Amino acid sequence: MPGWQCGHAAAPKRTKGTKGDRDEVRAPPACGGERRVSTDVRVLAVANQKGGVAKTTTVASLGAAFSDEGERVLLVDLDPQGCLTFSLGHDPDKLPVSVHEVLLGEVEPNAALVSTDEGMTLLPANIDLAGAEAMLLMRAGREYALKRALDKLTGQFDVVVIDCPPSLGVLTLNGLTAADEVMVPLQCETLAHRGVGQFLRTVADVQQITNPKLRLLGALPTLYDPRTTHTRDVLLDVADRYDMPVLAPPIPRTVRFAEASASGSSVMAARKNKGATAYRDLAHALLRHWKSGKPLPTFTVEL
User: Fold this and answer.
1) CA 65, CA 120: separation in Å to the nearest integer?
2) pLDDT one-digit tens code per residue, 99-118
3) Separation between Cα atoms, residue 101 and residue 179, nearest integer Å
4) Which Pfam families does the record cross-reference, listed alphabetically (predicted)?
5) To which H or E segment does residue 296 belong?
6) Is CATH 3.60.20.10 the classification given to domain 37-191+202-227+249-290?
7) Contact 49/197 with Cβ under 8 angstroms?
8) Among 12-26, 140-154, 261-275, whose mean pLDDT is lowest?
9) Which of 78, 60, 75 lies closest to 129 in space, CA to CA?
10) CA proximity to 33, closest of 208, 185, 164
């Protein structure tokens, strides 16, 4: 089977053969402004309008890996379903306050924060957030509600990771507007990239209007099965159509994903499984990228 080679290319490339027809939608510039290398707080949005791509698992597991590295971590749940909140051991239906009240300016952000068993802090969500989305639509500056809230937490955290909902509504726009970078989890299956073009247009719009400094880090392959050539073909198609970097390492398919969500913990709770190792490697690469400017590893496919 063709192998993957870790490198720092902009996107996976075929070593021979021709590219297929490219989609007319291209990835927006990786950098919406000069890349900032510093020890200041970093805000990472994890977003994809398609559900079922291990987005919430990615947020929880990256957060746990950052915490293991000694970072002060805040996770933000922007999904009205509250999946991140539930997966980290908090019942969305029993929250006294949540991100809903924070976005509407009814409470200060610190009043809604809760802790997790893995040393992180969570700004939780529940179904009330759907109502906040409707109410924000009637307000001026609605895309900046989360950014205003995070600004009030300056100095309390080193890394903020935002779990955006599987949509392109005002909540996702809030996540992208508040973020320094965005990562796109992508399941390695046929048709998994449908809608990516529309999402990339949204990222480009945010870069133009509400957050010129937003950077697109690239696609993160999830539920990856190295035994199949089909997986490789899907990722090559994404790279060809959208000219988007594909980050390494890919996150392998593992039963630990389901077990972690059911038990109210991240996949990192089982330290030796392959998924935990991949997330730990990715978190380490991100921290190194942020603090020293070292390029993020990407994959090149040998045919």
Assistant:
1) 10
2) 999 999 999 999 999 999 98
3) 20
4) AAA_31 (PF13614)
5) none
6) no
7) no
8) 12-26
9) 78
10) 208
pTM for the complete prediction? 0.86
Q: What 8-state DSSP symbol labels residue 297?
A: P
More confident residue, 34 or 139: 139
Cis? peptide before 249, omega within 30° of 0: yes
Q: How many CA atoms lie within 13 Å of 149's alpha carbon, on the beta-carbon side?
A: 32
Residue type, 67: S
CA nearest to 148, candidates 103, 110, 214: 103
**Residue from 160, 145, 155, 242 nearest 193 by CA:** 242
Give the mean pLDDT of 150-160. Answer: 98
* Rounded-to-integer distance, Cα 63 and Cα 283, Å: 8
Closest by CA to 109, choosing from 73, 58, 74, 64, is: 74
Alpha helices (runs of H) in 3-160, residue ranges in sequence order: 55-68, 83-87, 99-103, 109-112, 128-136, 145-151
Sort strands 121-123 and 114-115 into parallel, antiparallel or unpaired: antiparallel
Rg (CA), the chain: 18
Residue 167 CA to residue 175 CA, distance in Å, equals: 12
Long-range residue pairs from 102-105, CB within 8 A, at least 24 positions apart, any chain: 102/149, 103/129, 103/132, 103/136, 103/145, 103/146, 103/149, 103/174, 104/132, 104/135, 104/136, 104/145, 105/145
In the chain, domain spans:
37-191+202-227+249-290
Going by DSSP bridges, is the β-strand pair 215-222/4-7 parallel, antiparallel, or unpaired? Answer: unpaired
Residue in the structure block whose two tokens are 């942020």: 290
- Residue 114's beta-bridge partner residues? 122
Where residue 28 falls (left for φ over 0; alpha for ψ -120 to 50; beta otherwise) is: beta
Backbone angles phi, psi at 240, to 5 degrees: -70, -45
Measure the CA–CA gap between 42 and 79, rounded to whole angstroms. 21
Residue with tokens 């609605």: 142
SS3 299: strand
CA distance 78 to 145: 12
